[in-house]
Amino acid sequence: MDIQIIKAGITNCYVIKNESAILVDAGMPDEINKFSKGLKDLGVNPGEIMAIVITHCHWDHIGCAKKIKDMTGAKVIVQKNEKNILIKGKIVFTPGHSPGSISVVLDSGDAFVGDMAMNGLPLTTRPNLPIFAEDMTAVKNSWRKLIDKGVKKIYPAHGKPFPIEKLMNKVVL
User: Fold this and answer.
1) In terms of DSSP bridges, do strands 2-8 and 110-114 run parallel, antiparallel, or are they unpaired?
2) Residues of the chain above pLDDT 90, percent
3) Can you give the pLDDT at residue 85?
4) What domains does the chain contain, in order, with CATH numbers?
């Protein structure tokens, strides 16, 4: 399995490639050219992307979703009940940052959490919980759920990936 990042404005879009590929998050509005160049630089044919998983429906995560869907023909997944993903993993309901936040948790322990965690300027200087959440108690409960599922590595929408241990002291168990 190969995991690559395409920057689409301030948001990371993750391409998870095995026999086929899925995309986690669709970047900011008007960043389709950066996204297209990122795919080309990675050597990924748009037709390889079978699904676009949106971690939550804020503008910086859905901005290019329609254009990417048109380019790839992929399904856009915004609800946890969808099962048309071609990788071994689950879509987990992780409310808190927003009421409809979801995370993609692979069987490998990699978790794509959208804004449930952050790790980079200008938002934070180290791995941390979100700087904004509609319900911080729900954020912490969602993290307990992810920890119980065996998450090992966090892929935030903003900043660099990091091991779960860097966040453990932020979540009171």
Assistant:
1) unpaired
2) 62
3) 40
4) 2-170 (3.60.15.10)
